[in-house]
Amino acid sequence: MKIRNVLSLFDGMACGRLALERAKIEFEKYYASEIDNYCITVAKDNFDDIVHLGDVQNWREWEIDEIDLIIGGSPCQGFANQGKHLNFDDPRSKLFFDFVDILNHYKPKFFLLENVLMSRKQWTDIINEYMGVEGVLINSKLVSAQERKRLYWANWDISQPSDKNIGLGDILTSNHDWSASYIAGRKINPLTQKREDSNPDIPYTQALHVKDNGDDKAYCLTTVQKDSIISNKPPKSRIPNAFVDLEMGVDWRYFTLLECERLQTLPEGYTKAVSDNQGFKMIGNGWTVDVIVHIFECLKADHAKSI
């Protein structure tokens, strides 16, 4: 399949460009709007043909045309469970309306929008109305070793990917039998290992939570590394003072940068142009590339039917 130009909004580290390549969709130019210099550095390191446009809020100054495909994942902090639930009052989530304005201006043949699974249905309903289609929920665990539920809006039919049966042990560089875990502020009764958030006699600690070993997937990567780690403690454990009590045998570790790249189905070394800290951050903000590849393959199949 060949299209004219692609416009990627909130481009990040050019996961969309990588997915187009894997899906074997040819295009003339790939325009990218991004303001994070570290992301731009990684994008340039991997693709020297991207035309960078700068801030999406300056889109009226762009001199581009013949856009066949617009893609983007507008900032989600106002919708995510980890956020403050400001929804469309959050200035970052308001950028969704820039996406809509740009879509209405260029009127591309195809569009794709990604965002988090939202805790309030009315937020999703608002986006459905503006996009003119309903979002499709896909969990990255079907194509990777990571739990990552995201909504995708596109003007073509999106099916569910086939399960590639990739387990956590498949992407780890060591500790292959360790379990997915995370660390969060909790009140944990040390005797029962149960949460007692309303108990005034139990202090908040940074507690280690270990997943049931029947589910061999990492927790969703975010920009905070402790949100998704691994541990050799028993499944379903809840252990207080994860940071303080390392010497007491609370054995856990962060994912390596290479493991995070694998969890997002990125090529190994994709983020090598920046520091590890910046790499972790942009991977947590990024797309699971093989999910986008599948969505683009759905586009190819849908387009072939119309020819």
Please summarize what this structure is.
By secondary structure, the chain is α/β, with parallel strands linked by helices.
Tell me what the structure shows:
By secondary structure, the protein is of the alpha/beta class. The chain folds into two domains: 5-162 and 287-306, Vaccinia Virus protein VP39 (Rossmann fold, 3-Layer(aba) Sandwich), CATH 3.40.50; 174-255, no CATH class. The chain is built from eight helices and twelve strands. The protein has helices spanning 15-22, 37-46, 95-106, 121-131, 168-171, 257-263, 276-285, 289-306; strands at 5-9, 30-33, 50-52, 67-72, 110-116, 136-139, 149-154, 179-186, 205-210, 229-231, 238-239, 252-254. The chain has a seven-stranded mixed sheet, sandwiched between helices. Helix 1 (15-22) packs across helix 8.
